[in-house]
Structure formats: structure tokens, C-alpha cells
Amino acid sequence: MGKLRIIICALAFVLVASVAMAEDYTVSVSQIVEHPALDATRQGFMDYLEEQGLDVKYNVHIAQGNIATANQIANQIMDEDPDLVLAIATPTAQACAQRIHETPVIATAVTDFVGAGLVKSMDKPGSNVTGMTDMTPMDKHLDLMLEFVPDATAVGVIYNAGEDNSVTLVKFLRDACEAKGVKLEEATIQNSSGVLQAARSLVGKVQAIYIPTDNTVVTALESAMKVAHENHIPLFSGDTDSVERGTLASLGFDYYNMGRQTGEMAFRILKEGANPADMPVETLQDLSLWVNKDAAEKMGVTIPEAVLDRADTVLE
């Protein structure tokens, strides 16, 4: 009987110890809207932490493209008291950063961390916010467009002027166009329902249309594609996920890999005690060139051989 008590006590000790060793974490996610690029980012983040053996409970919130909703979500996250906050895209990152000051906030798929008021500097954030930027090289994107349409005198861009990330990107695109002597026609929208009319307003004015990593426009990408097909205007995008949906080409980031790298940053905070204030904002180093042959046919465009030769992904 004494031996039995010893065995039972030993088993109880092992059970208690194993429970104590199992570290559970709660991560609250605020995402501005659902579309393939942002969804891939979130999935990459989750997959990385799962592969590292972390047991994580996720509270996922989607703001449906509404800034007021993003603010409400940030308030709700404060009540959830998570171990870490994942903010996907600029508007939700701003909403969380303005309200959450103690819990670590990792923002990802954000274009301009400094311009959006999220960090003091890219190298030394200085607060509880850090993350990953998806700032795209607009000069290289313009060069890609001009490879397809070398005689272009004007290109168009559709964006939501209420998204700080888009305003920053269009500024850089404007500078790139000026340097190349190309006119930039800007069509701004306030919500996704305006994308169709914005695209139509560019017909007859431009030889190519560019969709930046604008969450509002990407949500209604099919509206812009409809105009591109009907009028044989090449439609380019800032993210490669949109090429899968039907844009002609992009020189962009793999957002799933961006999510994984963001997850690695979260791992350092949760498991290693890293301080976001001292963690530089990171970026993916490799850009991928994607082209879509079916989209080219629908838009009446011939893909240059030089582009096909160096493309990382060619969709049929």
C-alpha cells in the first residue's frame, strides 16, 4: 500500500509538472479586411508559431474595412488582455497603437511605420510596437509597367486617400513617374464600391493602371479587372496574390512568408522576452516577379520574353 501511494504521488507530480510546463498564450488579431494577401499573412504567422510548438489561442477580429470598427476592435482587445497583439495592415495597426500601450503589438503588412506614427524610427521603435513593412519599390514597379507598354505616356492609379499607406505609395509612384517623364492620373475612392467608377474614369487617359497594396481597392479588385478586360488596358498590382486573382503582373512580396517572419518576431517576444522597443522593423529581402498569361490574353497584352525569362511564377 505504501508503494502504491508513492507511485500515485509520483504520477501526480509528473502530471502537475507537465501542466506547468505547457505554456499557453493568447494572441489577439486585428485585421482591417479579408483579402488573400492579408489572409496569407495571418496564416503564415499562425503556422510558424504552431511549428515552434507554441500553444496559442487566437482572438481574430476583422474590421471589414471600417476605421471606426478597427477602433472598436482595439478597445475590445484591451479587455481581452492578450499576451501579444497582431495588427495586420496600417489602419488596424494605428488603431491598436493609439490605445494599447502595455501589451506588445506586432504590426505587419504596414507600408510606412514612421509616417503612420507607429514607431519613432525603423531601427529603434521606442515603444511597444514593432513589426514588418511591405513598402514596395515604386520605381521598379513603374519600370515593370513600362516593359509591357514602352510607349506609355500616362499610367493610372486607383487608391483610397484615407489609407496612409496608399498615400505614401502614390507619392513615391508620383516621384518615379516624374523622373521618367510619365504622367500619373490618380483616381481616388472612399470605399470599395467606388472602384468600378474609378477604373472607368481612367479609360482613354492612360495606357496602364496600377493597384497599390491598398486594402480598400484590393477588396474590389474584380471591378478594376472588368474595366481592364473590356478596354484592353494592362492592370498591374502591388502584391503577387492579386496576380493569382487576375492582374497582369507584380513585383511583390510573398505575404505568407511575411506572416511567417512576423511570427518569428512574435516568438522572440513570447519565448525569449525580447522588447519590441528594441526590435528593428523588418522587411522581406526578396521580391518575386509574377505574371499571369490568362490575364494578358484578356487584356490584349503580349508579355515580353525578357519578363517571362526572369519571372519567378508564371500563371497560365
Automatic annotation (TrEMBL):
<feature type="signal peptide">
    <location>
        <begin position="1"/>
        <end position="22"/>
    </location>
</feature>
<dbReference type="InterPro" id="IPR007487">
    <property type="entry name" value="ABC_transpt-TYRBP-like"/>
</dbReference>
<dbReference type="Pfam" id="PF04392">
    <property type="entry name" value="ABC_sub_bind"/>
</dbReference>
<dbReference type="InterPro" id="IPR028082">
    <property type="entry name" value="Peripla_BP_I"/>
</dbReference>
<keyword id="KW-0732">Signal</keyword>
<protein>
    <submittedName>
        <fullName>ABC transporter permease</fullName>
    </submittedName>
</protein>
